[in-house]
Amino acid sequence: RIEKFPDDFLFGAGTSSFQVEGGIKEGGRGIAVHDLKKPKKGITDFSVASDHYHRFEEDIELMKELGLNSYRFSISWVRILPDGKNINKEGLDFYNRLIQKLTDSGIEPIVTIYHFEYPKALVDKYKGWLSRESIEDYVNFAGILFSNYGDRVKYWLTINEQDHLLKIPERIGFPAEMTGLEYERNAQTANYNMCVAAAKVTELCHKMIPGAKIAPIINPMPAIPASNLPDDLIASMEFNELSAYYMLDLNCRGKYSPVYRKYLEDRDIFPEINDDDMKLMKDNPPDFIAVNYYMNQTIAVSSIKEIALRGKEVFVSEEVGIYKIAKNEYIPQTDWGWNICPEGLKIAIMEIYNRYQLPMLITENGLGAYDKLENGEIHDSYRIDYISRHLSQVKDCISLGFPVFGYYAWSFIDLVSGREGMDKRYGFVYVNRDNDDLKDLSRIKKDSYYWYKKTIAERGQDL
Ligand code: BGP
C-alpha cells in the first residue's frame, strides 16, 4: 500500500455558485429556475447563502491557509447570460477576479459549467432542455467560458449530476403539473439533449483550449445485494445500470446500454435519437470521469410483476418489478438517512474504471451534519471520521493501480444545502448564520479544517 498520496494528487474542496454566492439580485444576474422554488417552511432560500459573492477574497485566503491545491466551483449561467443570450460583463468580471485570485494563490481552479442553475429565460422561450435549441445555448455559454478563462482553467466539468438532476423537476424547469409517464418521457428527451450538448462542449473544449481536460459528473450509489439470493445480485446490477451507467454509457461510448434501452422501450419512453448525435458522442468521449459519492444502496429484487414509474424521491427511487431498497444492519446512516459506507466509494471507483478505463476525479464527498458552535469552536469529529475513512478508500484504490488523481471534499465552506438550507452543513469553514438569522456571516474554522490541513501537508500518510 502506498505510504502517501502522489505529489501531483489534487487535494481540493468544492462549492456551487447558487449554494454559496448569494447576491442573487446583484451584478446584473438573471433568474435561474430554482430561484422560483419556495423552500420548505423555516428553510432559507439562496438569496444571501454564504455571501461568497462579496467575500470570495477572504474565502480564498482561507483555502490558501488550508493548503488546498485545487478548488472546484461552478459558474452561474445567469450571471454570465442573464437572459440566456446576451453577455453580462459584470458577471464575466466577477469570475475573472475569482479565477485570478485562485491562480495567484497557487490553487488550481476546476470549473463546473452547469451546476443546477438553469436560466428561466430559456425555459420561457422554448421549454429549456426539452427543446433542441437548448443544445446550442449551452454550447454558446461554454464557449464564452472557454474563451475568457481557458488561459487559466485546465479542468472543466460539463453538467453536474445529470443522473440526479433529471429527477428534480424545479431544477430543469419542468412544470409541477408534469408527472407520471409524461414526465418520464420528457426527462428522457432532456437527458438525450444534455448528452448531445455535453459531447459538443467536449469537442469545443478540445478545440479551444489545447491540453484542457473535460468530464461529465456522475453521482453513483453502488448497489450491494441485500442477501446471497442470486436475484438480489441481478437486481443490484440492474439498479446500477438504470440509475447510474445509462448516462455514462452515452457520454463515454455514445450508446444506450441494453438494459436501459429495454427499460425505456417497455415503457414506450425511448427518446427520438439520430445517428449523427450518437456518432458525435462516440467521437468525443471525456478525458476523465468526475465522481460525486455520498452513499451506497442495498438492493433486493422486487417481485411484484408490474411496470411502475420511477419514484420522484431522489435518493430512494424503486422500480417495482425490478428492484427495491433494503435495510442493511452493517451500514449506519446520517441524520438525513443517507447511508455511510466508505467501501462504496471503492466499489464505485473499481466499477467505473472497469467499465470505461478512464481516469477519475472524486469531485464531491462529505457529511451533512448539524454543527454546534460552542465558545467560538466547532468540534466536528464526525466529519473528520467520515472524510478520513473515504479518503483512505481512495488511497487504497491508488495503491491498487486505479487512476484517481484528486479528491474534493464537499464542501469547502458551509453553504445552503439543496433542501435543508443551513441546517445541514458540510464545510470545513463554518458560516455564522442560521436559516432565519443572518447574524454576522463570519467565517470560523472547524476542527475538520485543521485536520484536513494536516492531512494535505502530510499527503495523507496517516490514512
Ligand atoms: C450533490 C450536489 C451538491 C450538494 C450535495 C449535497 O448532489 O451536487 O450541490 O447539494 O449533493 O446534497 P444536499 O445539499 O441535498 O445535502
Automatic annotation (TrEMBL):
Record-linked PROSITE patterns: GLYCOSYL_HYDROL_F1_1, GLYCOSYL_HYDROL_F1_2
SUPFAM superfamilies assigned to the protein according to its UniProt record, in alphabetical order: (Trans)glycosidases (SSF51445)
Entry keyword Transport: no
Biological process, per Gene Ontology: carbohydrate catabolic process
Any single Pfam family the record assigns to this protein: Glyco_hydro_1
GO molecular function: beta-glucosidase activity
Entry GO terms, CC: cytosol
Tree of life domain: Bacteria
Keywords in alphabetical order: Glycosidase, Hydrolase
Positions annotated as active site in the UniProt record: 364 (nucleophile)
PANTHER family reported in the protein's UniProt record: ARYL-PHOSPHO-BETA-D-GLUCOSIDASE BGLC, GLYCOSYL HYDROLASE
Similarity remark: Belongs to the glycosyl hydrolase 1 family.
Protein name: Glycoside hydrolase family 1
